[in-house]
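Lecture notes, structural biology module. Today: joint structure prediction for complexes of three components.
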Amino acid sequence: MLFVLGAVATIIFFMFRLMPGSPLTAFIGTTFTEEQHDLLVKKFGLDKSLFEQYLLFISNTLQGNLGLSFTYNKPVMGMILEVLPNSIILTMFSLMIAYIFGIIVGAYLAWKRATWVEGIGIPVVLITRSAPEFWLGMIALALFSFQLDIFPAGGTSAPGDIYYNTLDKLLDPQFYHHLILPSLVLAVYLQGLPLLLMRSNMLEVMQEDFIFMSKMKGLSSWTIVIKHAARNALLPVATAFTLGVGFAFGGNVVIETVFSWPGLGRMLVFAVSSSDYPLAQGTFLFLAAILIFMNFVADILYLFLDPRVSYKTRN
Amino acid sequence: MNLLSIHNLSVHYIGSQGTTKAVDDVSLNLKEGELLGIVGESGCGKTTLARSITGVIAPSAKIISGEIFFQNTDILNPTNSTIAHNVKWKKISFIPQSAMNSLDPVYKIRNQMREILMVRGGFNKKQADEKSNYLFDLVGIDVKRLRDYPHQFSGGMKQRVAIAMAIALDPKIIIADEPVTALDVIVQRQILDLFDKLKKSLNLSIILVTHDISVIAYSCQKVAVMYAGEIIEMGSVKSVLEKPLHPYTMGLNNAFPDLLSKKSDYLVPIEGSPPNLLNPPIGCRFKMRCPFSQDQCNNKPEKINNSDRHVASCWRESESDQLRIRANEPSTWINNG
Amino acid sequence: MVKNLFNVLKKDPYALTGVLIYLFFILVAIFADLIAPNDPLRILFNSGGLARNIDPGREFLLGTTSNGRDIFSQLVYGSRNALYVGLTAALAVALVGTIVGLISGYFGGWLDNLIMRCADITLGIPFLPFVIVLAAFLGPSSWNVVIAISILLWPNSGRVIRSQVLSLRERAYIESAKVSGCSNFRIIFIHIGPNILPLSFLYGSIAIGWAILTEASISFLGFGPSDVISWGFMLQDAYSSQALSLGAYFWFIPPGICIVLMVVAGFFICRGYEEILFPRIKN
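The predicted structure, tokenised, for the full assembly:
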């Protein structure tokens, strides 16, 4: 994992160095004073060779220093950490709804193989996978927010409201009021994967010999489907969930934009469109790090869930 | 007294290309304490037959007609579903093919033993564990292995576990479908000896389905020979193997190596292959490959119907002694039909 | 094999629907000039002055945007961009993934290791953010999506194709081809290749949908080209023109529906062909 992280960080470094404009302006905004200019040149070694800059970049990053934002003149790391909880909450909330729904309905659709339920169900699910998330968000906003005025139109809080910290946020029902629409829309899009995956796994597992033997033993349908089939079918879904977390952080950009949800994705969009390179680089790096980390977790997770795998690797 | 009695059982597979008559009007009996073998080549319907007895068949299979009497109750067409349910595993259990992964890979063996004992046997956890230990001892596995997962067992050990599970609820009959096929010869013998020991000590009756005649010869007292969905010969193992009545059985004898044989040195296969069961031939199904077929074979010979004598389903049964002598000559089978 | 394809279409209503949808949009794209009454980017005027925010009616089938442009014409011309982006991306993914899979799987060794490591690294780059940043470098253009997809999406198809190749490589007929002196090139392209094509095709058709969705997202975020009409652009235009609060459903619902249709068509076709192409292969 560390290898991949390092490689990706390197790629990001070189990517951002290829920005149009001189290496100096790539990292220092034109609004900075002469003093700040010199300070930054020194800190980031911008008058040194590319290789030395690279080393500085790595060491700075490892220390948690991702530079100063052009637009806000604040440390990038701090800004990221401020919005991070919002992204985490949105992602986890939506994924959990999506996966719980997807797993149950997926198993149900497998049960209803070759019936009209499956015939209608599958195309509907495929359609949810085909619809752009932000478009669903737009429809939801137009309908529930503007027309029916049930839910707020965006942001995490009503205008004028401030949350003091994350805990405050989580305890405030206003927060959830703002959370519902974006997370539900996201969940609609996300549930397709676990649903189809669970369904196809169930279909496969139901053909296995030990299911057949369970029927011969006279065990109840409930026991067979839930205790045996579902437990086996869930393994890949658990892995998918972990991978889904990493992926969703980057993909949530659009949802965050539609609902003006202050998360990492939205910050990246803002940074790129305002040419705030340190912020953009820092955010991108962070998103990549989360993705890589979750990929790693997914691999480990499978080790724990499948007794066959852990047996092989331990021996 | 027949413990199990199958009457005129027919099972068909419904497929996209038509209906395969996998089991066609089969009748046979099993007495108490008997080890009956059903032998036949791949595709002859023996597995379908075996599974039909347990009541769990493939989704595309359909039981067309027949009755299966267990202790005088028809379990194939029971008057209410609890009858069939009470027979499942408690009276009739199943040992799968040794190549099957018949155990759930994500649960420890102990839990799977507990499942069958507690859910269907009414044991509580402590009793179930005690019984599991006892069963493992009986089949010759170290009790410590109960805490392992299925993939940690070798093929032979897995079969022992399957046997332990099959006898868990003290059934009267065990159906074993190719129980030793994928195992090496030494382990085969061990498992077959285990069958014998259990049969005697637990008063079991066993139906053993296999394509391997040597397994039949080693273990069974009675044998039914199956061909193309029908039972074509039945009798004691000694009688059927030494003095076969049906040309197919005669041909089988030639096709298997016999270490003590004084006969010719080479094996003689029966040329050709079994008929397509989507459209079985009219009359005797073996006639195309049979070196002794005549015009009358275009009519179906009499079906075997639960007799205790040694019988075969062949028009020329009465001439079997002479035919047998000719069947011993390799030239009879080569370039035939 | 062509006959086989037709048979599938006959049997599977899904695949048939998918193909019909594609055909429909292809025809619309080709005959856009004939179908669309106006130039999609032209600002229109009518008797009342600037023809802005007009509701659907006889003159403008789907009404007009806040800038006075004909929505229906935009919709029609948007199909061109969708097909363009979708098909090029699909081709790119199929090509890169297949070649990588073939080479990696067939030659093995250090080359395989290297490629697989590259795959790991590629999978560590977040997709949408990358496209966004790419748009910042290269300037807004439809090519960004295609490039990003080619660079980032090959690991999935590459890996699956690679394992197919691995299993095929050991087959007897490959051994005999080698023994009879077939060059590696021949073996790869004539013996293994045809067996891999169905997989490439499958991933390609999924890529079409993915590309269209990505293009829509990018345009929506404001990083797409503003001189080319695409459905994503329409949605962005609608959003920033407050179409939501205006309740101008006729503006932003149709482009979304078109996107859904194109993407779902890809899924439907996959489902249909999956049955004949791989009776046993699973992912």
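Point to remember: Residues 129 and 293 of chain A are 26 Å apart (CA to CA).
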